[in-house]
Design brief:
Length: 252
């Protein structure tokens, strides 16, 4: 699948489709398309068979904050077709081939933007209670499976880290965007009581243990939304348990 990614802070993705070639995307993500690219709205993820399969697929998508429906775009004539999709907030669109990652990636919820037809959007449960409660995305993450290209959107700038076997990285829970299924993901208390109360980094951070690949984002959507809602307040990080009380103590 040929593609181009345009823009910097606010990116969009343009796919080039041959006759009969299809791509799937989140409902409402389309930016523009050429005349002979046909659209079809599908209940579920377009990979399930039968009524029960579609219902299960739609349920999995709902749990990962995706729409119950996807849109399938297909080029209908023997010529090149174009369809483009816009990112929902400032960040980076990544093009990843699932074949390079054993056909599966674990991502934050609501990260899938578009992909080759047949890519399945499922759920990945956090088995550890603390990881589910304090891991930033709850007990459920997004699981992307298949053999084709996928395009995921992550907030801000992206850092790709290759972890060797046994190597451990500590990450703010909101900054973990994606990882391969081989990475061991857990949470750990973030320092002592003073750090937890006044450090602004939250109560816990994620511990990622290799081997595997992880992608980190510099601007989680929760951080962006929190800054906007608080009127660009400074000094107390979005993870501080004091919140607005801490701002008052700081003289703001």
């Amino acid at each position: 699948m040929d593609f181009k990614i345009y823009g910097h802070e606010m990116q969009y993705l343009e796919l080039e489709l041959d006759e009969g070639e299809s791509a799937v995307a989140e409902a409402g993500a389309m930016m523009y398309k050429t005349e002979h690219v046909e659209m079809e709205t599908v209940f579920g993820d377009d990979s399930s068979q039968g009524v029960m399969g579609n219902l299960m697929s739609a349920g999995r998508r709902l749990l990962t904050s995706e729409s119950l429906f996807v849109t399938v775009f297909t080029q209908s004539i023997p010529a090149k077709g174009i369809v483009a999709f816009a990112a929902p907030f400032p960040g980076t669109i990544l093009a990843l081939d699932l074949k390079e990652y054993d056909g599966k990636l674990i991502c934050q919820k609501d990260s899938f933007l578009a992909g080759a037809r047949g890519v399945q959007v499922g759920i990945h449960f956090q088995k550890r209670i603390l990881t589910g409660l304090f891991g930033g995305d709850g007990f459920i993450l997004q699981k992307l499976e298949g053999t084709g290209m996928i395009f995921v959107h992550m907030g801000g700038a992206i850092r790709k880290v290759e972890l060797k076997k046994g190597e451990t990285l500590h990450v703010d829970t909101g900054c973990l965007a994606a990882m391969t299924s081989t990475v061991d993901y857990d949470v750990q208390q973030a320092g002592g009581v003073k750090s937890m109360l006044f450090g602004g980094e939250g109560l816990f951070f994620a511990t990622l243990k290799g081997p595997g690949t992880v992608w980190l984002q510099s601007l989680p959507f929760s951080r962006l939304a929190g800054r906007m809602l608080s009127g660009h307040s400074q000094g107390q990080g979005e993870g501080s348990v004091l919140g607005s009380i801490g701002n008052l103590l700081g003289g703001r």
